[in-house]
What does this fold into?
Amino acid sequence: MAASKSPGRFKQRNAIAPHSQQASARRKSIEEQRRALPITIARQKLVDEVHKNDTLVIIGETGSGKTTQLPQFLLRAGFSKRGKMIGITQPRRVAAVTVATRVAEEMGSELGREVGYSIRFEDATSDLTRIKYMTDGMLLREALLDPLLRKYGVIVIDEAHERTVHTDVLLGLLKGVQAKRTEEHGPKKEPLKLIVMSATLDAQGFSTFFNNAKIVYIQGRQFPVEIFYTFTSEADILDASLITLLQIHTEEEPGDILVFLTGQEEIESMDRLIHDRLPRLPPGSLKIQVVPIYAALPSEQQVKAFIPAPPGTRKVILATNIAETSVTIPGIRYVVDPGLVKSRSYNPRIGLESLIVVPVSKAQALQRSGRAGREGPGKCYRLYMEETFKQLENATVPEIKRCNLASVVLQLKALGIDDVLGFDFMDKPPKMAILKSLEHLYILGALTDEAKLSDPVGIQMARLPLEPLYAKALLISANFNCSKEMLSAVAMLSVESIFFVPKDKKKEADAAKQRFLSGDGDHITLVSVMRAFTDEVNKSGGGVVSKKQILRWCIENYINMRSLKRAVDIYRQIEGCIQAINLPVLSCGEDFTSFRRCLAAAFFLNAACLQQDGTYRTLANNQVVSVHPSSIMHGKKLDCVVFNELVKTNKQFIRNVTRIDSLWLPELAPHFYGTRDAVSACPVCESSSDDMILGCRLVQT
Ligand code: CDP
Ligand code: MG
It folds into this structure.
């Protein structure tokens, strides 16, 4: 055995010399790629325009080099004088990480030094950092500590066409910051240069918003992409995607395939389906290498999608709409597009937000197919009929118009912007949504009767990088001796799919889940998984062997190791935040009643009681809901529960459910479950229902 192993080792040693050759070849090829980017010839013009204009809108097709090159142009042109940084915001964490990694490599510097990134729960920057990629949400958080963002000489709002809620708030905020900085220092000194970058031609809106800012277009380059539609509509999208990609693989020329799926779960199922089919590929076909890319994937794995497949292998990239415009993966020649996307939707009347799978817009479908024609002619397979395409909406509605604004309103308040309704939004969110969020924050105790941030609760809530409901839950958890349990629950709820349930091993996976099960609900079950995992890690210490042990533990218990590791990481980070505001971190041990009482006190807005027909009715807004099949409380009849999530599919489901005693509600949330005065018509929103009154009264005062 030993003898048969050694040639392998030798090979590795010998590989050192070719390796450095490889590295220099890679550097050369990167240099060539950069020279060939459409943005390269526009370099001087762009630098000149940034000198001349404090605000600039730059439009260029995806892949033209905006995100990776522009910050480097600006750095070399001296826009990072006196230690000021060039900040570039991205709507998605994946983009922030992968682009920073790439740019660090291009500049030959270590990631986190001159080039770094900052995303929620992960900071890879240092005092040396000059180019900083970050999520739009992170820059918004930075503004809380440094309202005039003095660390930055230039801020680039990238992917502005995505119109995430954070990007929209930033647009309004930065407009104000720019004006204030000019006011303070005079127009010549320390102006804030603002650049809005977008991949779509619809630039006028941005220019108008910034007082007719100059628009610069970068000439793009796109090869023809042949589009195919299906003859009938597909019932099983995963199956249709699988068949299509296998067909491409066996019948078409080499070239990588990009498949657009809606989320981690779908991507993981598809990954398994492909692996099941691999042994049955016709002899002589290329090998297949599957690489997933989605938001929750750990950073080091996201970067893998960009590494070219070895010779004789076709790369199949399974991506969410991240790969639509945010990241450009080289080598793609075929796109499989089921035409669906997971999208946020918010019903302010019910006050609950849900993630639903919806058809993409025409603009998105075009972006997706465009990914096949970046390096040569390509093909795009739309898994829907041509008729369906014609009926798609032209563009996606900005997120600010369809999401819960509680978190954003809390941040605006923390930034001292009290008149949220009068804030300079590029597109105003529905008034009702703002009023509801004010009401929500007031009920949580984050706002005073005058709709000002309350001290200390509101201030502390704004400091925690979490949704207000979770922030509040953590703040009160010490009173119930269960900060550790709440930290675990919140961390576990911040990641997707802790449990790993292969289709063909459902029984085994269910049996494994029994070990962690609590008859009282999902939250306690999640806490038990986290406890068992940390016990396992502590038991085995660090090192390679223990890594294997931990992996084995995860496989045996049907636990998704990636998700769980990330949850542990998030736990540590929020624990740090809690300690920073001097709150004790206590544990209730086995006294889970305290924990459940804390859940009731925190999530009282999401309480539901059983009805005779086995469904539940939410107490805050009278909605009929059912317990989701993924919940361990599914099929059980419990008098009263609290939940975290409302998902809409064929009906309204609640997820992450825990049993509570209904009498706890008036005891723990008397301000909400005490008697409320009914009022007739509201002078602000003209609604006749009394549920709007609170929000309106807050705006009036
Ligand atoms: O921002 P824009 O869409 O205009 O382009 P970019 O993200 O700057 O990408 C420019 C080029 O860099 C593309 O050809 C990408 O394939 C390449 N790139 C890469 O190879 N690896 C990355 N992590 C990011 C970009
Ligand atoms: Mg870009």
In short: The longest strand covers residues 640-648. The mean pLDDT is 88.
